[in-house]
Amino acid sequence: MEEMGGDPLQISVNTMSVTRVYSSVNELSTPSLLSRRKHPAVRLRCQQGKHITDIEFASYGNPVEDCRSSSRSCLGSCHAETTEFVVKDACLGRRKCAIPVRPAKFGGDPCPGIQKSLSVVASCG
């Protein structure tokens, strides 16, 4: 960084710490180009030195589009009951994780005939 004029002793640097991560991926989304897998996946990652300590919300089905606010229910009319277990098993205690968005991962299709998404809100600590 360079300071033109002013008093260099008066400069301050602010930092931030990310404590929550969010991802929502539709089953018809194109998989990441960095992935070797054929299916789209929810990918969560905490900043360096932190790991996933809690899953605040997880739903495979048709959850509310933007579910980052924990003050309201985000479950839609379709929800796989195994979602929380699957996500916790894949992510808790890890810095990063990926969960494929496909019915087999959640014990089958919870609501045939509708397009599904996986939405997850996690805490980093």
TrEMBL record:
<dbReference type="Pfam" id="PF02140">
    <property type="entry name" value="SUEL_Lectin"/>
</dbReference>
<dbReference type="InterPro" id="IPR000922">
    <property type="entry name" value="Lectin_gal-bd_dom"/>
</dbReference>
<dbReference type="GO" id="GO:0030246">
    <property type="term" value="F:carbohydrate binding"/>
</dbReference>
<protein>
    <recommendedName>
        <fullName>SUEL-type lectin domain-containing protein</fullName>
    </recommendedName>
</protein>
<dbReference type="InterPro" id="IPR043159">
    <property type="entry name" value="Lectin_gal-bd_sf"/>
</dbReference>
<feature type="domain" description="SUEL-type lectin">
    <location>
        <begin position="36"/>
        <end position="125"/>
    </location>
</feature>
